[in-house]
Design brief:
- With about 160 residues, the protein is mainly beta.
- It has a single domain, classed as Beta Barrel (Hypothetical Protein Pfu-838710-001).
- About 10% of the residues lie in helices and about 50% in strands.
- It has two helices and nine strands; from the N terminus they run βββββαββββα.
- The protein has an eight-stranded antiparallel β-barrel with strand order 1-5-4-3-2-6-7-8.
- It is globular, with a radius of gyration of 15 Å.
- It starts with a strand and ends in a 7-residue tail after the last helix.
Length: about 160
């Protein structure tokens, strides 16, 4: 089984000058049930199908399975998704031995910028770039599957 171990942070300050790559992502959810999500993603000109399991108690680790699929199939599967879509640009920023994925959201999540770092173990240390703010790993509101249902612009 593939385990995804990651920590998630709010972004404060400028990060784009540090990015070495970026891509546009649009994604929807065939299923966004808590503990098991099925996601369809179009990243630039490639399609992906991803299944994720429930997070552990700390929120840092969960099962993840992902497969690249033909772009036309991804477009067809998007038609089966629940209402709502995640639209964002992902920037990649190196920090020490790690790569931070910084997502700038659009549409109903405009104004939200999140950074994630993938780790090999929950207690692995890493260098935080200057733009890293509050950790939100355990806050379910920041899961993309929840941002689709309760967008950032609707929070009070």
């Amino acid at each position: 089984m593939a385990q995804e171990i990651e920590r998630k942070f709010l972004v404060k300050g400028e990060f784009k000058p540090e990015a070495y790559s970026h891509s546009h992502i649009v994604q929807g959810y065939i299923s966004s049930a808590r503990g098991r999500t099925v996601r369809v993603r179009i990243r630039d000109e490639k399609g992906y199908l991803t299944i994720k399991g429930a997070s552990n108690a700390s929120g840092t680790s969960r099962y993840e399975w992902e497969k690249e699929i033909p772009l036309d199939e991804a477009h067809e599967l998007m038609k089966l998704c629940e209402p709502g879509v995640i639209d964002k640009t992902r920037y990649l920023v190196r920090s020490g031995q790690h790569i931070f994925e910084v997502d700038e959201f659009y549409g109903e999540n405009e104004g939200l910028i999140l950074a994630e770092v993938e780790l090999t173990s929950e207690d692995e240390s890493f260098e935080k770039p200057q733009f890293i703010g509050e950790e939100v790993t355990c806050d379910l509101r920041y899961y993309n599957s929840n941002l689709m249902k309760q967008p950032f612009t609707t929070w009070k």
